[in-house]
């Protein structure tokens, strides 16, 4: 299970949908045009995988160069600038042991610039350049070659039911994060299971449940290739169990492998109730969801706070 084969582009397009519309809350309050936003839920969240911010009509050859602003470039005009945004940032220094790599919350704000976004086989459309600043460690800029930085996990803004969530700048209780070299496992070696040590002998386990789909590697006709999606993540704590959406493999990559850091970006206690909160990746870097224990319904351990799902319209998808 440790090595997960990736399917070809067509199979990736047909892989399971890990965020069914029936499970998603209504569009968030910043979806001003009611157009169906990339972000859903009362926690507006964006992954920390920032890119260069360049409008399609920008003719400057130096646009997007190292040191220039970084963020998200999204079609539409549904977001507005403002404060009360938070960045979750974790240590990634290779010289530190994993138990010394902590995380913190940093207050920041969103700046929005109108732009034009390219469309594959189509004309550019209105868009916005979303830039969060200030951020420590030059995380609000395109990195220089070889630059060592902390790990920007996500930026987010609580709204509506979460508007009174008590957050403050500084260290945040963290069990694991993707800046770590290795996550603690369960007593079943060779699996992708993760064990979160909560203190006082308590722990929570995250157990992936796979969903093999028979397919074939066209480059090796003599060998079948199994597309192995993760159907669900099972969160276990004490006698409780809860199934969360799984992981649908994106396009083939060079490794053909999946590690716990690939699907569990962060686990800690964001809402201060001593029960784990999770930031899970459900496929590519553009498909993430934040689950808070304080939003759990009866019989649950966590509830969906917010999600981000985006497909770049300038890409052919392969």
Task: Spell out the blueprint of helices and strands.
Elements: H1 9-14, E1 39-41, E2 43-47, E3 51-52, E4 70-75, E5 82-90, E6 103-119, E7 122-133, E8 151-158, E9 170-172, E10 174-177, E11 194-199, E12 202-216, E13 224-237, E14 240-247, H2 260-263, E15 264-268, E16 277-281, E17 287-292, E18 303-309
Antiparallel strand pairs: 1-18, 2-8, 3-4, 4-7, 5-6, 5-8, 6-7, 6-9, 10-15, 11-12, 12-13, 13-14, 15-16, 16-17, 17-18
Quickly describe the structure.
The protein is mostly beta strands and 318 residues long. The chain has helices spanning 9-14, 260-263; strands spanning 39-41, 43-47, 51-52, 70-75, 82-90, 103-119, 122-133, 151-158, 170-172, 174-177, 194-199, 202-216, 224-237, 240-247, 264-268, 277-281, 287-292, 303-309.
Strand content: 35-45%
How many structural units, i.e. domains? 1
SSE-based structural type: mainly beta
Query: Main beta sheet: strand number and arrangement?
Result: 8 strands, antiparallel
How many helices in DSSP terms?
2
Number of separate strands: 18
What does this protein structure show overall?
The protein is built from 2 helices and 18 strands. Strands 2, 3, 4, 5, 6, 7, 8 and 9 form an 8-stranded antiparallel sheet that branches. By secondary structure, the chain is mainly beta. It is globular, with a radius of gyration of 20 Å.
């Amino acid at each position: 299970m440790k090595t997960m084969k990736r399917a070809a582009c067509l199979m990736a397009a047909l892989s399971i949908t890990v965020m069914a519309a029936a499970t998603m809350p209504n569009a968030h309050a910043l979806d001003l045009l009611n157009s169906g936003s990339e972000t859903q839920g009362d926690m507006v969240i964006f992954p920390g995988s920032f890119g260069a911010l360049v409008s399609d009509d920008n003719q400057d050859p130096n646009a997007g160069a190292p040191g220039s602003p970084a963020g998200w470039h999204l079609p539409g005009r549904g977001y507005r600038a403002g404060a009360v945004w938070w960045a979750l940032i974790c240590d990634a220094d290779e010289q530190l042991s994993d138990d010394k790599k902590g995380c913190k919350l940093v207050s920041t704000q969103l700046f929005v610039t109108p732009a034009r976004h390219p469309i594959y086989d189509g004309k550019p459309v209105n868009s916005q350049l979303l830039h969060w600043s200030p951020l420590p460690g030059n995380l609000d800029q395109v990195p220089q070659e070889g630059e060592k930085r902390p790990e920007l996990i996500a930026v987010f803004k609580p709204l509506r039911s979460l508007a009174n969530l008590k957050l403050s700048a500084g260290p945040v209780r963290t069990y694991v994060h993707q800046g770590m070299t290795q996550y603690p496992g369960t007593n079943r070696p060779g699996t992708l299971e993760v064990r979160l040590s909560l203190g006082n002998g308590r722990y929570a386990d995250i157990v992936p449940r796979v969903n093999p789909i028979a397919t074939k590697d066209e480059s090796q006709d003599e060998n079948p290739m199994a597309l192995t999606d993760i159907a669900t993540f099972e969160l276990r704590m004490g006698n409780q169990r809860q199934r969360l959406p799984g992981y649908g493999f994106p396009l083939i990559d060079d490794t053909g492998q999946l590690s716990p850091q690939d699907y569990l970006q962060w686990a800690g206690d964001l809402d201060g109730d001593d029960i784990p909160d999770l930031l899970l990746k459900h496929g590519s870097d553009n498909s993430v969801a934040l689950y808070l224990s304080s939003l759990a319904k009866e019989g649950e351990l966590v509830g969906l706070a917010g999600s981000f799902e985006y497909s770049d319209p300038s890409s052919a998808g392969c």
